[in-house]
Amino acid sequence: MLDCHNERTRKKLTHLMEKRETNIYTIEKGGIKKLIYQTPWYEEGQYRGFLELQLEIPLGMSHFARDS
User: Exposed e or buried b for every residue in 17-44, given b needs 16+ CB within 10 A?
Assistant: First the structure.
């Protein structure tokens, strides 16, 4: 996985895997916006690696604040 990324991204991913931290952000490329969710993967309480989920988000998608 690390060979597919540039040095800056490799450092970030290595840190996330070593510290077993979750990283969530959005990107936009070619007019497509995505939510990226990266998180440690555990099976029966044992750390097994890292997962990444990418979900496409429509650019005009509604957003609702539910604070009230």
Answer: beeeeeeeeeeeeeeeeeeeebeeeeee
- Phi, psi (rounded to 5 degrees) for 46: -100, 135
Q: What is the pTM of this model?
A: 0.78
Residue with tokens 């952000």: 25
Q: Which pair of structure tokens corresponds to residue 40?
A: 């440690």
- 3-55 per-position pLDDT tens digit: 888 999 899 888 988 899 999 999 999 999 999 999 999 999 999 999 999 99
Instruction: Identify residue 63 by its one-letter amino acid code.
Output: H
CB 57 within 8 A of CB 33: yes
The C-alpha atoms of residue 64 and residue 44 are separated, in whole angstroms, by 36
**Residue 66: both structure tokens together:** 């539910």
